[in-house]
Specification:
Blueprint lengths: L2 H6 L8 H4 L9 E7 L3 E6 L12 E5 L4 H10 L4 E2 L7 H5 L4 E16 L9 H10 L2 H7 L28 H10 L7 E7 L3 H13 L3 E7 L1 H8 L6 E7 L6 H8 L13 H4 L5 H12 L3 H18 L2 E14 L2 E2 L15 E2 L2
Parallel strand pairs: 6-7, 6-8
Antiparallel strand pairs: 1-2, 2-3, 4-9, 5-8, 5-9, 10-11
């Protein structure tokens, strides 16, 4: 994006973001030809691009929300790439002549969070009990696979990843912790999940109730959930998160950095939304961001993840992956863990 043009269209400090939602001001390998919102985007080769010219002269991205429709059009030859298929659709692609699949881990995760301010979940023993009550393997099995085991906020494949789990599934331990915290008969709570995580929510509800935690499951649209979430209005929640860049700091800040839970906070990310401030973890996040020695930095992140699991309000449920179906006409296709693709490198056979 040309920063000069973006700044010229600044509206109330938004750095031109409102303008950019309707206009193209880039200088990349492709130029925008047309954009039908929620329908189709057409790009053509930018002959004035400063770098190597794209292999394809035109790129068309069609918005097809349903994976079943993507699969039908891929098999019918209408499209050459189905971007996000379900795990149970992969065998159908693999047995279809002229198609192949790619499965790629993503720096995205599904997580469970507990409000850290109000009783009874302001008690660390209760939070540990809740985490011990949840069987993440059962969750992954219920959704049909295609995801990756994960116990922390740093995904596999990213620097600083810790593969340990401080509070694995242990229902008896959960009951002991509840009794120690003064809740031998459990308590009642509302778990809010977006509609696309309803299966995961149902599984978690079942496991919480097995240790005496009566769980009212609220399944709502994601936009509605975000509105409540950003106002610290949820008791327990499930949501997704994706790193903006391939460094542990991208996830450490939202998941572990919060100095105050009040409205005066300057950073209101995930820890703040769940009303949880931990000064020691916040100090560790800030320290790790500026350490230059790789080994020393990694150690701080490992220690931070252990503390995050032991004391914090979050439980990672699994790491996401992307399942793609591709025509063998397509060559040089690459997708990375941030779901980025160098479209200019892709070739297409006639």
């Amino acid at each position: 994006v040309n920063p000069k043009i973006a700044e010229e269209h600044d509206q109330e400090g938004d750095m031109g973001m409102a303008y950019l939602t309707e206009h193209s001001v880039g200088s990349g390998p492709y130029k925008l030809v047309s954009w039908e919102r929620n329908q189709k985007i057409i790009f053509e080769r930018n002959e004035y691009y400063w770098g190597p010219k794209p292999e394809m002269d035109k790129l068309i991205i069609v918005d097809i929300p349903e994976s079943s429709s993507q699969l039908l059009q891929l098999k019918g030859g209408t499209i050459d790439l189905a971007w996000n298929l379900e795990q149970d659709q992969i065998p159908d692609v693999e047995k279809t002549k002229g198609l192949y699949t790619i499965s790629k881990p993503q720096f995205k995760l599904i997580y469970f969070a507990i409000n850290g301010q109000n009783p009874p979940t302001d008690n660390v023993l209760v939070r540990r009990a809740v985490k011990s009550a949840i069987d993440t393997e059962a969750i992954m099995k219920a959704i049909g696979g295609g995801v990756i085991e994960l116990h922390t906020f740093i995904p596999k494949g990213m620097f600083g990843y810790y593969d340990g789990e401080e509070f694995p599934y242990n229902p008896e331990k959960a009951k002991e912790l509840l009794a120690e915290a003064g809740y031998p008969d459990g308590f009642e709570v509302t778990l809010t999940v977006p509609d696309f995580l309803s299966t995961e929510g149902t599984v978690v509800k079942s496991y919480l109730e097995q240790v005496g935690i009566k769980t009212n499951l609220e399944v709502i649209a994601y936009t509605t959930l975000l509105g409540k979430y950003r106002e610290q209005g949820l008791q327990m929640v499930m949501a997704r998160w994706g790193a903006d860049y391939a460094d542990p700091d991208a996830n450490a800040k939202p998941f572990a950095h919060c100095r105050t839970t009040g409205p005066e906070a300057t950073i209101k990310q995930l820890a703040w939304r769940n009303a949880y401030a931990n000064p020691e973890m916040t100090d560790m996040v800030e320290k790790a961001a500026f350490i230059q020695d790789r080994d020393e930095r990694e150690k701080v992140y490992i220690d931070l993840q252990k503390k995050w699991q032991s004391e914090g309000i979050f439980k990672a449920l699994y790491q996401m992956s992307i399942q793609l179906g591709i025509s063998d006409r397509v060559g040089n296709f690459i997708v990375n863990e941030l779901t980025q693709t160098p479209w200019e490198l892709i070739t297409l056979k006639d």
